[in-house]
Amino acid sequence: MEELFGSLVQGAGILFNPDTFLLTVLYMIGGLLLGMFVGALPGLTTLTAMAILLPIVFFLPPIFGIPFLLGIYKGGIYGGSVPAILVSMPGTGAAVATTFDGPALTRQGKGRKALEMALFSSVAGDFTSDLVTIFAIVPIALIALAIGPPELAAVLFLSLIVISATGSGAFVKGLLVMGIGLFVAMIGQDPIGALARFDFGIFELRSGIGLLPMLIGLFALSELLLSIEKRAATYIKAGAKALEGERLKWSEFKASGRTIARSTVIGTSIGMIPGVGQVVAAFVGYAAAKNASKHPERYGKGELDGVAAAEAANNAVNGPTLVPMLTFGIPGDNITAILLGAFVAVGMRPGPELMVEQGPQVFAILLAMLLANVLFVIVGYLTIPAFARVVRIPKSILMPLTIMFAFAGVFAVRNNPTDLYILGAFGVIGYVLRKFRFDVAPLAMAFILGPEIERAVGQTLSLSRGDLFGYIAFERPITLVIIILTPVIAWYLWRRSSKLQREASALAPPE
Amino acid sequence: MRRTFMKSVALGALMLGVGVSSALAQDNFPNKPITMILPLGAGGSHDLNARVLTSILPQYLGQAVIVKLVPGASGQTGTAAAASAPADGYTLLFTHNFYDQLQQHVKELPYKTTEDFVTVARTNSARMCAIVRSDSQFKSLQSLFEFGKQNPGKVELSHSGQWGATMVPAAQLFNWAKVQVNMTPYRGGGPSLRALLAGDADVTFQFPSTILGQGDKVRTLGCVLDEPTLGSPPTFASLGYPGEIGEMHRIVMAPRGIPADRLAKLREAFVALQEDKTYQRLISRLGEDSNLMSGDDYEKVRVEQSKDYKALVESMTSG
pLDDT by residue for chain A (511 residues), tens digit each? Predict the structure, then answer.
């Protein structure tokens, strides 16, 4: 422990070295701006930007190169929530929960407030989780190792239950839409044997339905179709005086303090599950906030607290996600894989030896992450007015522009023309579902989590070698506990949400 | 003063451009950027290799090389796109041997890799090693084989995905040793390593650069070739395994039917690239080596691979 503290102090010495500190800050700001830019434009992903720019890092000293990449990473995650808030266009699964309230706020002329709330809650969640990561890196590493396929399957199943129990609208309708999402996710190859299924003999469907065309079709395109139908009257509220809207008030941020704290705890815990962490965290954080709120009926109609809940949760995942990479050299997803490549390139080979041999360097990087958050508040705050100005663009130009970005962005990701048809199809599917008052979020969620659950269950079956019950009962105590808790938590949540809904409908005047 | 300096720089650049283009005017290839299709996603090891390749290649080709990621359906989407591109040398495919030669024995494909593509170069290869945890009861591959023969299906193996880079060599090795192991696929090499460290798996296959980072937490039982960085563990050949095993070849292919002079030009560029100091430095920073194999030589390897993989798939799927 003392040794770790010594490394921490030395790490601070490396980062705050007066000779290099200013340049480190400049590289980081450059990374943040670049990340926000690629994150905000659909089709340009943070991942691609990092892959393309990785060779630059080979030529830079570690204390500049790594912060530069960290800047792109952090900026990219926030950048993704900008189009989600302004034009209901989530660029990643992690931004889906932000579209529940963000676009509604924009339409009410509160786009700037929503962007600022997203920024501050993101940074608050991120900063806290980084801090926790620095002081609890060893226990987090042990937990990460304890989460295998059976635990992952149980946690994902529990998340699905939690989210659907607190969803909006009729429960049966939610299940139905979720079923569609699960089926759509099965098109292509199964995650265990890589065998083609449900492709209807069409080669183009063998690669499955892409996440981005599905998300943008379902959320952004369907929104546009609905607006066109209503002659765009609702796309952005007409006649709002200051279109960029007011700034976020301190009192409003403070009012969401509890939500941000709760989402941070949720995000940090879920962050130990690699890969799907961000998506699950945002959904669960949102569901928990709605469940705890005195006014759950406001959620999904432009509740500032909803933006805070989703954004704090998905950013709080970032700290712990890096732990398996740093301590075992195991990247959980492609972004951490690129960071791993960058570390190796600058002479730090992540793994058990790294903390022993190069502890100070590791802590210098962790401290750089904290610094990135501080810089991000400043960079973000200064750039928001530029983003918020988007709503000033006349609707007759903004709407075609959004459609253009949707199609161009979707094509840019995989260079696959099939994705354009998929985008169009999901635009129509989203439109029809919304017309019949179905919530489309369960579709997206089931689509994202379905394959993860299928893979985890398949792996568990393989690991159990035919004796599933015995395996879970005697060799997987954590899984057993989660499975036993699941119906209890579901029952509690269902009771609570139906009680709140009854109260709300009793209070609300008949429509 | 400053303006004249800028002017002379611009003039120099212009003349350089003229010089390059006049040198190429003889056969006029390439006179526009070349597209290199990757049937794989962003951020993987092929992507990173491609970024290094394409940052140096223009020096030897006189034209930019653009990476185009077309992932999907275990490489089928991108490979199909490259197969249907004109055979004029302006579209290349950067893939690996499992997509190139193994997949055809497992799946019905809309193209025939051997007939549709010819090798430009094998840029390098990554070689697998078998590892166990350092507290494992298995001290050698022989002891693992013995235990596995007496306890069929008891040995748990984690790998990076069905018919992928770590599954195939493992299947080849245990198939040859007549040991029945329980194989569980994970999403990539990282999660399959986690399974080993967490005790979910008994044995897994990894690249030497990954193993090096694990220090004394894992024990290397054997590698496909001699790996001095890992203390030269036994090679699979020294155990008696015949033939090629466990290498993932990164290969640049061109649609077959490409004019011979253009193919020759591309092949030359890759040979020249191999000697480039910057290329060598960048590629080693990725933890990769730069052991080029010429297109001609690799064409012979492909034929052998196809036979081996066919036999492997038949023995694995027949029961």
Answer: 677 788 888 888 888 888 889 999 999 999 999 999 988 887 778 888 888 888 888 788 888 899 999 999 989 888 889 999 998 998 888 899 999 999 999 888 888 999 999 999 999 999 999 999 988 888 888 888 888 999 999 999 888 888 777 766 677 888 889 899 999 999 988 888 888 888 888 888 888 898 899 999 999 999 899 888 876 555 555 444 455 578 888 999 999 999 999 999 999 999 888 767 888 999 999 999 988 888 888 888 899 999 999 999 999 998 898 888 888 888 877 888 888 888 887 778 777 777 777 888 888 888 999 999 999 999 999 998 888 887 778 878 888 888 998 999 899 888 888 999 999 999 999 999 999 988 898 899 899 999 999 999 999 999 999 899 999 999 999 999 999 999 998 888 778 777 766 776 676 554 4
Contacts of A286 (CB under 8 A, 6+ apart): A97, A100, A299, A306, A309, A310, A313
Query: Which residue in A307, A308, A304, A343 sits closest to A325, CA to CA?
Result: A343
Q: Do A330 and B48 touch (CB under 8 A)?
A: no
Per-residue tokens: A86: 């302004």
Taking residue B16's Cβ as centre, other Cβ atoms within 10 Å add up to 10
Nearest to B72 among A55, A149, A414 (CB): A414
Residue B153 and residue B179 in contact, taking contact as beta carbons nearer than 8 Å: no
Give the integer Cα–Cα distance in Å for B308 and B314.
Answer: 10
Please report, as a single letter, which amino acid is at residue A210. Answer: G
Contact B198 A145 (CB under 8 A): yes
Q: How many residue contacts between A and B have a Cβ separation below 8 Å?
A: 149
ipTM > 0.90? Answer: no
A145 close to B (CB below 8 A) = yes
Closest of A130, A144, A142 to residue A272, by C-alpha: A144
Q: Which residues in chain B are contacts of A76 at CB distance < 8 A? A: none
Q: Which residues pair with B158 in a beta bridge?
A: B184, B204
Give the residue from chain B lying closest to A333, CA to CA: B190
Q: How far apart are CA B234 and CA A378, in angstroms?
A: 56
CA distance linking residue A260 with residue A256, whole number of Å: 6
- Residue of chain B whose Cα is closest to the Cα of A476: B200
Q: Which stretches of A277-417 are DSSP H helices?
A: 277-292, 304-316, 318-328, 334-345, 352-388, 395-414
Closest partner residue to B198 (CB to CB) among A51, A146, A352 is: A146
Q: Does A355 touch chain B (CB under 8 A)?
A: no
Cis peptide bond prior to B30, omega within 30° of 0: yes
Residues A324/A141, Cβ–Cβ less than 8 Å:
yes
Which of the 8 DSSP states describes residue B244? -
Could you give the CA distance from residue A214 to residue A199 in angstroms, rounded to a whole number?
A: 16
Q: Which residues of A touch B194 (CB under 8 A)?
A: 144-145, 148, 324, 328, 330
Provide the phi-psi class of B142: left if phi over 0, else alpha when psi is between -120 and 50, else beta: alpha
For residues A317, A456, B46, A45, the Cα torsion angle rounded to the nearest 10 degrees is -40
Report pTM: 0.85
Asked if B187 lies within 8 A of A191 by C-beta distance, the reply is yes
Would you call A10 an interface residue with chain B, using a CB distance cutoff of 8 Å? Answer: no
Nearest to A335 among B43, B200, B282 (CB): B43
- Nearest chain B CA: its distance from A210 CA (Å): 9
Q: Is there a contact between B214 and A329 if contact means CB atoms under 8 Å apart?
A: yes
CA distances from B186 to A459, A475, B265, B271 (A): 8, 20, 40, 36
